[in-house]
């Protein structure tokens, strides 16, 4: 009995194969179309080759927020992760010890993150700063 069931299952699988191949081909075509659309959108945003345009050092987007510039923001952010500061109280205490009020940190946190959402080049620069910070 097991042999006949296996043969029946194999017959079912073979019958389904052309449909599965067709589905896979359609999914591949959709993926290629999405990739082309993403590449076009990135080109329109000035992100040729997937790389954001460099940030102009005079860009107002680089203005410090509550006295915290982008490099300092990267340093403070990395320290929060490095020291595993999880609670708001721990973060507030660390900010005080680093010379910033908790309110200034919160304003900088909110402000820099809003800028990152609006500017991919700024996000990339932040990532470079963050990765270069030594603690």
What does this protein look like?
The chain is mainly alpha-helical and 135 residues long. The protein folds into 2 domains: 2-50; 60-132, no CATH class. It contains 5 helices and no strands. The model has no long low-confidence stretch (mean pLDDT 81).
Gist?
The protein is mostly helical. The protein has five helices and no strands.
Helix content: over 70%
Structural category is mainly alpha
Give the tally of β-strands.
Answer: 0
What's the tally of helices?
5
- H/E topology pattern: HHHHH
How many distinct domains?
2
Q: Tell the overall outline.
A: elongated
Beta-strand percent range: under 5%
Give the key terms:
2 domains; 135 residues; single chain; 71% helix; mainly alpha; elongated
Topology (SSEs and partners):
Blueprint: H1 2-44, H2 70-82, H3 88-97, H4 102-118, H5 120-132
């Amino acid at each position: 009995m097991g042999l006949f069931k296996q043969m029946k299952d194999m017959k079912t699988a073979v019958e389904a194969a052309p449909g599965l191949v067709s589905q896979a081909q359609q999914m591949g075509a959709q993926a290629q179309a999405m990739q082309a659309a993403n590449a076009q959108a990135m080109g329109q945003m000035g992100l040729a080759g997937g790389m954001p345009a460099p940030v102009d050092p005079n860009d107002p987007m680089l203005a410090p927020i509550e006295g915290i510039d982008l490099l300092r923001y990267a340093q403070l952010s990395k320290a929060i992760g490095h020291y595993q500061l999880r609670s708001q109280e721990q973060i507030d205490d660390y900010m005080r010890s680093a010379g910033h009020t908790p309110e200034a940190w919160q304003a900088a946190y909110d402000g820099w993150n809003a800028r990152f959402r609006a500017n991919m080049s700024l996000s990339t620069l932040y990532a470079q700063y963050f990765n270069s910070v030594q603690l």
